[in-house]
Amino acid sequence: xxxxxxxxxxxxxxxxxxxxxxxxxxxxxxxxxxxxxxxxxxxxxxxxxxxxxxxxxxxxxxxxxxxxxxxxxxxxxxxxxxxxxxxxxxxxxxxxxxxxxxxxxxxxxxxxxxxxxxxxxxxxxxxxxxxxxxxxxxxxxxxxxxxxxx
Length: 150
What we know:
Elements lengths: L3 E9 L14 E4 L2 E5 L6 E10 L2 H10 L10 E3 L1 H16 L4 H4 L15 H19 L5 E7 L1
Antiparallel strand pairs: 1-4, 1-6, 2-3, 5-6
Helix pairs in contact: 2-4
């Protein structure tokens, strides 16, 4: 229980359209039972590209800068240039810890994690930079989305 945060990448495949020329095979099972097979109706692929747990300061940034202040665990599109903005903030705060409360302040909430500017806070910033670096270095097509659960 608590704040879980997910960054995913969605890639439109459109295998049901001949002109997309999608090829390959797909067979997915869970607990030994087939969930799906074949790609003829595959419309998109969703990849997990980032995860945080109780990083309320990162969540606060996404809510304010991406979700227009609406925090209802909805999935929201994240332009890559906005991820660059977050990366720059993380870099600034890691360079000068005294900027933490000003640039990436903590947020209270039901099981949202600690509100101290401690080793966990700064570790979350380092992890965030790794996630963003991976997303930005990936030159394949696709769109990035953020979603939280609490």
